[in-house]
Sequence to fold (424 residues):
Amino acid sequence: MLSQVIKLGRSSGLKSAVLMTIGNVGSTGVAAIAMIIFSRVLGPEQFGIFSVLFSTMLILSRIGDMGINIAISRAIAQNHGKPNLVRSYSQNGAYLKAIIMSVVVVFGLISSSYLTSTLLNLSSNYTPLVRLVIVLSTSVVIYEYINSLLQARQHFGLSVATNTIQSLLKLALALVSLVVTVNLQVITLSYMLFPLLGATVGLTVISLRELLPRYNPKITKSIINVARWTSLSILAGALAENIDVLIVQNYLTTHETGLYAAATRIATVASLIGWSLGTVLNMRVAQYKDKKNLDQYLKKGSMLATAALILTLAIILITTPLVNLTIGTSYLAVVPTLNILLISTALLTATTPFVALFYVFDYPRYFAISGFLTALTLIAADLILIPVFGLVGAGWARVITRTVVIIYTLTTAYSEYQKHYGKK
Fold:
């Protein structure tokens, strides 16, 4: 047993997984803290505008992905040791992204006035800033592409570095904004460009030649064949993460959008408990193939998830002083909504040990279906509840969404468990 533990500890795969986990969770935490500081500095109204622009950028960057990153990473991993073929895949991926983002930018600029006033419900004064977001969303697409190329080549340390650098730059600007006035335009521009600065680290091992768009019909077709199935789930995930901010903006005031966006940032920090637990469990459950060990995992994993759930819910007891100390007294009105969002986060944490099972069952369909289910349920619940109940309705929409996903997760996990380990 001890020898197996030592062997596992020496595993390069495990070390890489731990490195990626610590780096990405840490970077997410740093970025969330930076966002919380900006919410305090800008105030609800301006932070609401920033959050709308930021959500728009994230959705556009996912359109620029369209599953290409996953397809390229898979192709590079399968053709390791064939540098010419690897370079060709990288270049053809860049070719597809260039086409997609060209369409996005051209269409976005043409419709920017409509996008600003109607879809984003902002004053026409912000049209130039919306156009800037549309154009510079390409920098985020480039950053994510370079990051995926680094991971495909197993340069996990550099991948973590790119993420960490851009998060630290955001935090540095946030700290500066506490002592020097930094306006909305500067913050928005910085959030578009910092990822690109972080990505420059990757250029130490990835040549610019690999990023030059090239077209090879056979390779391009193979990329599209893989990407077309993952693109929809990626877009669904982007909508699930960002659409509620845009719906709040359309039905309520920009001030209320700022309140809600700030509350979601605090909930994001709390969700790091679940993310950390999930990563540990994913690595743990990957070792188990027999029913006895899997049953033990489920028992211990459920206990850990319950503890994490209780810990997350316990934060509700201190939300008022927490809001005072973090985003400030101007956000106190959002405390009831924050409490509901924390319930949603706790429910997400509760699903963690069961989600990990789908890696053992080799059931990737779960992640696509749960992504679609999340997006569709959240949009429907938001459209029904926000006009009637306001911000509290937005919070309950997330709780309803998490509940639906939990039901799907548990029923599917039970079905797959019975299929693999039930009575024959």
